[in-house]
Please model this.
Amino acid sequence: MKRAQPQIGVGLLGYAFMGKAHSIGYRDVPVIAPPGVPWPRLISIFGRTESPLEEARSRFGWEKAVSDWRRLIDDEDVQLIDNAAPNQLHAEPTIAAAKAGKHVYCEKPLGTTIDDAFQMWSAAEYAGVRHMCAFNYRFIPALQLAREIIGSGEIGQIYHYRSNFLLSSALDGTRTKKWRDSGTSGGGALGDLGAHHIDLSRFLIGSEPRRVQAVMRIVIPESETGETIETDDLFAAILEYENGCVGVLEASRVAGGHLVTSRIEIDGSKGSIQFSLHNLNELRIAGCDHAFKSVPVLRNGDPGQANWFPPGHPLGWVDTFSHEAVHLLGAIAGLHEVDPIGATFRDGYYCAEIVAAIERAAKTGAAAEVRYRNLTSRVSSAN
Ligand SMILES: NC(=O)c1ccc[n+]([C@@H]2O[C@H](COP(=O)([O-])OP(=O)(O)OC[C@H]3O[C@@H](n4cnc5c(N)ncnc54)[C@H](O)[C@@H]3O)[C@@H](O)[C@H]2O)c1
Model:
């Protein structure tokens, strides 16, 4: 007799931008997941406002809609809590879920403060549950290939990591103050956008920043309706990594001509790699011949290709959420660890320390050291 397909019950916080993206990710799992990966059962979705919540429940395929996130955690059918709510709502429900023995998956930035992020990592680790921070750029096949190339030594010792993440979202002339603009969100250009590229730098070059210098600006201090904007519109930072690499990172939501531009360049002693979100199925690679070549990524055997279509059929940004869901569900089933491909809550906490150091450096105008706590001693250390 055929065995029943294993399933993991999911409870989701948030039904807007990321609630939609995560729901699409789960929808694809039965189609693309390799054998052995449990399929998600979309049990319950949480939101504050009844009518759009009910519409999302019905369109995204969730069984129940609830207006109190505690009901997701209390639900015996739910084994995984997915937190795609605004940043201010990351720590409390995620910590409560971990303490209740549920696996936890949380959008970036992990917490709005270093302490929140550390407590989240700590709670998940001590509860012995699987934990993943939703740094979905790690699930772009081209960037997984870039990581493999860098790890193989093909472009030599890494000297430069350069990235920019540019939007014009604060310039649309209809700006009202949203949760992202509040000083408690942990997320302006730095925490919201820069966090992705900070995480990617660690993912790609495999080294930790130890010292930073930075500039941050609030360019438009008031919303159209006269409310004070409390988070940064742009930042630029120089990061010194422990392997000697120097990172130059910037992000902006006031970059006039840019809808979403996300570019990364890595230069080593033997070559260079370039990536742009606009052409996310290719890498540009040059060796010591100085001739950049475009490498199409979804060739036979490239990361992510086997689960989809015959080689060469392009994927998109939304597919990162499907890859991420498959990866986490596979980890819950014990097929592999969340890291190093997925970001754990440790990675989310490390990113919070780096974001905070950039803020300190920008505030004082002096270089700031980055220190990471570890779980056992729970004290600052320069490990
Ligand atoms: N991985 C990515 O590429 C990516 C992209 C965008 C956002 N994010 C992250 O996803 C999370 C959600 O962001 P989003 O863009 O989906 O948000 P959004 O702005 O699209 O939607 C937020 C929703 O939450 C509601 N809300 C606001 N405050 C609330 C509160 N206190 N309690 C309950 N509901 C509240 C709002 O009414 C709105 O419906 C954030 O952590 C963000 O950083 C990640």
About this structure: The pocket of nicotinamide-adenine-dinucleotide is lined by residues 14, 16-18, 48, 84-89, 107-108, 134, 136, 179, 187, 192 (CB under 6 Å). Residues 214 and 237 are 4 Å apart (CA to CA).
